[in-house]
Amino acid sequence: MSTPRTPDPGMLVISVLSADWDAFWPEVQAVLTERFGPFQASEPFPFVETDYYDEELGAPITRRLLAFDELRPLDELADVKLWTNGLERRFARDGRRLFNLDPGFLTQQSLVLATGKNFSHRVYLKDGIWADLTLMWQRKHWVDFPWTFPDYAGEAMKTRLTKLRLSYKTMLSKPQT
């Protein structure tokens, strides 16, 4: 019999996609900080693997990857996704989002993203939100799956996530306040 135990907290990461950063970024930074605490944001980098969001968000789309300083319980993932969905709606104009937010948790073992879309490999959490095992850490590198989105399977993202994973390991070794 296995004995249940609380896992280590995860590093909250949020991918932000947009083609019009000037329209929202300073205000959304403040709102995200108020809700989840301080974070480090990457410089924008190209999002070119698909044109899926172009009609709604415009083009060219760039991404920022946010990594939050406070580690959080993994069972908050659905609540975080529901909150970020609300933030997207709050800033929408004429029924169109200005940005797309994809939250997830990075751990030593994996990157799990939250989604409102079911699929065969996803695990239901609650309130219409599923967990998507996007990447797995194995033998000192990220391993993707047949369902991993191409932008997450790319080396640019994996390189950033490897750096965040190192930061996460350092954070785990420090006493949590």
Automatic annotation (TrEMBL):
Pfam families, alphabetized: DUF4416
Protein name: GTP-binding protein
Naturally occurring in which organism (per UniProt): Pseudodesulfovibrio mercurii
